[in-house]
């Protein structure tokens, strides 16, 4: 990648193609204390107020800087490395982390250990990297007093509050007085598909678990849907196309969202899965189309519920699991309440929290 100059025109040469850089694009990026706030790196001028006919009167280039006199009297030295970074047309930090597909054969999950000043350490950076690769991570030894989970969430970014509050308690008692406190198994699902937007990341913190069952289960929705695409393309396709209604009703709120079970990016790559078959309502489509849809949902459900893709593990006291609710499905195995208590606390954060922290730590440690 090279920046080149020829008769007051600036070019970007990638080795494969040479393209002229628009003078206005460069003018928008002028720096110096008159034009750019040192601390925030935000512009002190509004480029939409400039004339569109910006051109270059004079330019010089060396290894580090491109110095330009623009026709509106402004002179600026632009950092060539900074310009080069901008030639990527999409996120270069998060999207460059490869998603690693996994199934039940996944072994040696690396655990992280909580310690003082954890959120500003290189280990936190490694943790976030691992989170983006696998869609989940487990951290040991997280304090359990005073709803520490909220403090934890707010130390990465900001807790995503919902109508359930800042956090929720998943409590079981030997003598349950509410269905929420049952000890039944929970099939793999994603949380809150009826919200818009769906909470991105769920944190689950084990405060106390004295039961032998109640294992946490995880399934990689990315692995499963890529497999479905490979082997049953027509089933995959309809699940990416049909938008179904997810609905949740409570005393003072009615939450609804229309979305496909498998959502893709513009380039048809994986974006998000939603799966909560107790809450989804497919619209009345033609009978043939519904035939295919039901066949597809059943196949997807069989795969999500298959031993082939599921990992099971016990969350011990003080363990905190952080999982990608747009990528992974989670559940639990049943357990015996007479054995003792099982008490977990949960909350949500969104991608801006993890992405913001990851970019900050990358900058801080020069990685
Ligand atoms: Fe859940």
What does this entry look like structurally?
This protein is an alpha+beta fold. It has helices at 23-28, 80-85, 122-134, 148-156, 221-231, 233-241, 287-304, 351-364; strands at 2-6, 9-13, 18-20, 56-61, 65-70, 75-79, 111-113, 136-140, 168-172, 186-189, 201-209, 216-220, 244-250, 253-259, 262-264, 270-273, 280-281, 310-313, 320-324, 328-332, 342-349. A six-stranded mixed sheet has the order 7-8-19-11-21-9. A hairpin with a 4-residue loop joins strand 5 (65-70) and strand 6. The longest helix is centred in the C-terminal third of the chain and has 18 residues, at 287-304. It starts with a strand and ends with a helix. The mean pLDDT is 93. The structure holds fe (ii) ion. Fe (ii) ion binds at residues 189, 191, 330.
Topology of helices and strands:
Layout lengths: L1 E5 L2 E5 L4 E3 L2 H6 L27 E6 L3 E6 L4 E5 H6 L25 E3 L8 H13 L1 E5 L7 H9 L11 E5 L13 E4 L11 E9 L6 E5 H11 L1 H9 L2 E7 L2 E7 L2 E3 L5 E4 L6 E2 L5 H18 L5 E4 L6 E5 L3 E5 L9 E8 L1 H14 L3
Parallel strand pairs: 7-8
Antiparallel strand pairs: 1-2, 2-3, 4-5, 5-6, 8-19, 9-21, 10-20, 11-19, 11-21, 12-18, 12-20, 13-14, 13-17, 15-16
Helix pairs in contact: 3-8, 5-6, 5-7, 6-7
The structure holds fe (ii) ion (FE2).
Identify the CATH homologous superfamily of the largest domain.
Clavaminate synthase-like
Number of self-contained structural domains: 2
Number of separate strands: 21
Distance N to C terminus: 20 Å
Name the hetero compounds present.
Answer: fe (ii) ion
CATH uppermost class of the largest domain:
Alpha Beta
Could you tell me the mean pLDDT?
Answer: 93
Low-confidence segments, given as residue ranges, are: none
